[in-house]
Amino acid sequence: MKLTEEQQRILDGKEGETRAMILKTLVMFGDIFGAKRLVPVTHNQGHLVTSFGIGLLKPLYRIMERLIADGIKVKGSFTVDPRPVDEENVKYSLLDKLVLKKIMYSQQAGYEEQLKAVGLKDDNAFSCASYLDEVGNKPKLGDVLSWAESSAVVFANSVLGARCNRNSGMLDLFGSIMGLVPEFGLLTDEGRKATYVIKVNTTKIPEAQILGSAIGMKVVEEVPYVIGLDKFLGDELNETVIGYLKDFGAATASNGAVGLYHIEGLTPEAKAQGKSLIAKDAKEYIIDDAELARVYESYPNMWKKPDAAPALCFVGCPHLTFTQLKDWTIKVSEGLKAEKRKKVAVDTVFCAGPDVVEKFKKDESYKALKAAGIRLTSICPLMYTNNPLSHRKAIATNSNKLRTYSLARYYKDAKMLNIITGKEEK
Amino acid sequence: MKTFKGRAIAPGSFTGEAVVSRQGVNTLATFQKSALKNASEVIVSDQNNPDIFGLNITGKILCLPQTIGSTTGGMVIQTICAMKINPKAFLFSEHIDSLAASGIVLAKVWENSDVIAIDQLGAEFLDAVKTGDKLQISEDGTITILG
Asked: Which whole-number Å values give the CA distances from B21 to A391, B5, B83, B124, B129, in the listed order?
């Protein structure tokens, strides 16, 4: 990799050993992927994946201590993934609390202090959907980012047209400190070309979570160009479409390793460049109703008792948008009315970022959420399910990401609603 | 004796025993239990990987296509290297993935680890090597299966 004089000076230790080591990490990492240079991060807000003080990551806390001792901070600020535990709004047994707080996430309080010291945006900055307007970490078209969190990276690349690789924890922070990232992969025009053409030939709008899963499993880490979805979604990135693409993208990134997708007629680069984004010799994958059904039926039921009734429902992985939160509340409310119920039939948790929750609490539908007995939190459901004690619970979710990384069982939105409102019991 | 030539990302010479995962190694699931317990060796805790589940891989040569799973993966590799309970070498048949690459770089720069990493050894390498084989790793990324 070719470095500028200034970068070489830092690498030589002229700004201290710690900054030299941070830059060396970025350079060595870039070299592995054939990067020729480091390029400036143009969006001054990072997003970190490591939000949880899990006991085992001791080197992380040691490096954070060293950064703080040396007065090193990120250039702007950063948001971070959700907190792991919320005792106020989520139900835990005494044993759960013991395992989560004393064993799993024993370093949480200290780690949050470290995050603040190196540039955490604010106390509300804990959300995987940090790019939503309410949270405000929203890059512009063409911005270069130093982010991790696969669902945020795929959204920023695809829906906002920003440029970011699928980074690991720690590298996200180092890029934000130096304001530099190695240029390769999704940072280059070549790396953003689609090597897969996806033809959506379904009779109705596909479930976002299953479509994303199908594409992720097929293309793995390649870039898909999706044809035929604009017919259902239109050509505008409105609130409903943003919610759809957030969930779709998270499924492509977790069921596969997609970092960027293009939707013909809808996402910014596809709108501007059209089919010229498709690389020569791109492969093709046709998705029809039968293919979606095949993918859906392929999901294993990992519950300890496969025929158990759901004991806990999670909606909001990734975190819900304001519109999704409102829509789900109204749907549950109306469903309960139809079932002549006052409260949800199964313990139900909706997850959204703290800023979205604050806004929602001022909305009239918040009363309906409270009346229905739905829990509203800003935790990460994945971190809830990391607790081995949760493995005994029959957890239902409409998130394909949560399904992939836990023992939770995936249900389509309509079925999920029926479970929550008790319609399934009849 | 079969030899394979890869790219030495973190070079080193070593002769030792192979542990082979034909599927992607989920870093967090593999190492989590041993790291949480502060164990003196890694017994693979990933139940979804029958190739290596339950095996002791500390000081061994882990042969794999790539790593998969959570983006904490890099930091987990760094952690086990800091604890000195890491496999002595990671031999990737494919191009190293970004999470494993981060882990190896973090371990080299921040933990002064002597972990070895070679990638792009090819699918034939993974077809040829078996758990328990004796392997010789050379500085230039050449792997010899001694049998």
From this structure: 26, 19, 22, 14, 10
Give chain B's count of helices (H) and strands (E). 4, 10
Nearest CB partner across the interface for B109, out of A21, A150, A257:
A21
- The string of pLDDT tens digits covering residues A30-46 is 999 999 999 999 999 99
Measured between alpha carbons, how far is A158 from A212 in angstroms, rounded to an integer?
A: 13
- CB pair distance less than 8 Å for A165 and B102: no
Least Cα separation, residue B36 to chain A (angstroms): 5
CB distance A142 to A165 below 8 Å: no
d(Cα A176, Cα A165) in Å, to the nearest integer?
Answer: 13
**Class of B2-145 in CATH:** alpha beta
Q: Which residues on A lie below 8 Å from B11 (Cβ)?
A: none
Amino acid at A96: D
What ranges do the domains of chain B cover? 2-145
ipTM of model = 0.96
Predicted TM-score (pTM) of this structure: 0.95
CB-CB contact of A192 with A260 (8 Å): yes
What's the pLDDT score for residue A113?
98
Please judge whether B110 and A59 are an interchain contact, meaning their C-beta atoms are less than 8 angstroms apart: yes
Q: Are A193 and A279 in contact (CB under 8 A)?
A: yes
Q: Terminal CA-to-CA distance of chain B, rounded, Å?
A: 7
Per run of 10 residues, the mean pLDDT along chain A (length 426 residues) is: 98 98 98 98 97 91 98 97 96 93 92 98 98 98 97 98 96 98 98 98 98 95 97 97 98 93 98 98 98 96 94 98 98 98 98 98 98 98 90 96 92 97 76
The 8-class DSSP code of residue A92 comes to -
